[in-house]
Amino acid sequence: MSNHYFIGTKVTPSIQEVLILWQSNLKEHMSYKVWPHPEDFHITLKFLGGCSDEVIREYIRLLRCEEWPLDFSLKVGPAGSFGDENTPRVFHANIEKVLPLFDIKEKVEKIGCSLGFQEEKRAYHPHVTLAKQQPEGKSPLVCSEESTPFLNQHDMNVGSFSIFKIHPKKTPRYEKIADIKLREKE
Asked: Motif HXTX 1 residues (predicted)?
């Protein structure tokens, strides 16, 4: 059986602390089957699925040969969801749709296609998952007085992205196996 991988960027420690508070507040209103570990909070660029070590080594090599944009800032938040407004199947933090993030996503996809990975056909909606699967309760986002903590936006600097190996039976689940640095501002 091959290992499963994805490409993404971890949130910074300060954003991680904010999202831990959001998860805690959300738990007062809803229960979910899956609550990602705070060390696993990330913005996905591309899910790769199962593949060989050789393919991953080649993907890393090609990513490291690419010219990447300058490091950049984006906003994390407000909270959002996928699915039914009252009981969403995924509760997440929205990520500001900034051009450098989409440029990275596009290049990651292009390199993936050259290695035989399927191109993602769905529109890219960057987010950080806070809870998912089998929701019970009512989303605090539908009650104006309950949604206040989830409305804020927080600045985050992005200076790199990574390839992660998924360990389904471990906590945290994601192991960083390679970092790809963006160009630094002078």
From this structure: 42-45
pLDDT in tens, 19-31: 999 999 999 999 9
Q: Which residue has the tokens 């805690």?
A: 24
Q: Residue 67 contacts by C-beta under 8 Å, 6 or more apart in sequence? A: 183
pLDDT tens-place string over residues 132-163 = 999 999 998 887 676 678 999 999 999 999 99
What's domain 3-181's superfamily in CATH? Cyclic phosphodiesterase (3.90.1140.10)
Instruction: Name the residue ranges covered by the structural domains of the chain.
Output: 3-181
- Pick from 65, 47, 49, 58: which is nearest to 7 by CA? 47
Question: What's the token pair of residue 47?
Answer: 């899910």
Is residue 69 a contact partner of residue 183, using CB atoms and an 8 Å limit?
yes
Sign, Cα dihedral of 175, 164, 98, 133:
negative
> Which is the catalytic residue, given 37, 42, 125, 154?
42
Predicted structure pTM score: 0.94
Catalytic: which of 4, 29, 92, 127?
A: 127
Active site residue 42: yes
